[in-house]
């Protein structure tokens, strides 16, 4: 039997976060985003060499930064059932807000938080299917109103 090019339960693109404090980040992902830890591989000298958590239907990989692999903050867009509730959980987990929940011109309600490793998580709930033309009109209107202020 042939081996699949993408393992079951994974998608074509999988975020890989290289951070200082990988265990702390995993604790945060578990409490704020209801992540489920799939596996954790420890480096012989200590720390996490690779861990995987599942958030919803997606896997996020996490590794402890080392000399040859420097920390690299990222930005991740995370779809959830309820932006406001997830944002509140993230704040209760001790994180920093970078944007309060707000309805956006492109049809999503989203908010932003910064995790303990400096990554930005854009928490979103899709609320409205809209055409590219309507997005463009709303965007122009949004920026026209900001120029008047």
TrEMBL record:
SUPFAM superfamilies: Glyoxalase/Bleomycin resistance protein/Dihydroxybiphenyl dioxygenase
Record Pfam families: Glyoxalase
Domain of life: Bacteria
Domain VOC per the UniProt entry, residue ranges: 9-126
InterPro entries documented for this protein: Glyas_Bleomycin-R_OHBP_Dase (IPR029068), Glyas_Fos-R_dOase_dom (IPR004360), VOC_core (IPR037523)
Protein name: VOC family protein
């Amino acid at each position: 039997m042939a081996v699949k090019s993408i393992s079951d339960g994974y998608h074509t693109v999988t975020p890989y976060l290289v951070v200082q404090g990988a265990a702390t980040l995993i604790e945060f992902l578990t409490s704020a985003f209801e992540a489920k830890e799939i596996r954790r591989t420890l480096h012989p000298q200590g720390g996490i060499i690779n861990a995987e958590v599942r958030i919803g239907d997606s896997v996020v990989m996490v590794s402890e930064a080392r000399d040859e692999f420097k920390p690299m903050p990222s930005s991740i867009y995370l779809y959830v059932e309820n932006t406001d509730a997830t944002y509140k959980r993230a704040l209760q987990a001790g994180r920093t807000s970078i944007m309060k929940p707000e309805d956006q011109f492109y049809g999503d309600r989203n908010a932003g938080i910064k995790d303990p490793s400096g990554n930005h998580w854009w928490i979103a709930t899709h609320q409205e299917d809209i055409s590219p033309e309507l997005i463009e009109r709303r965007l122009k209107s949004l920026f026209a109103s900001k120029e008047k202020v």
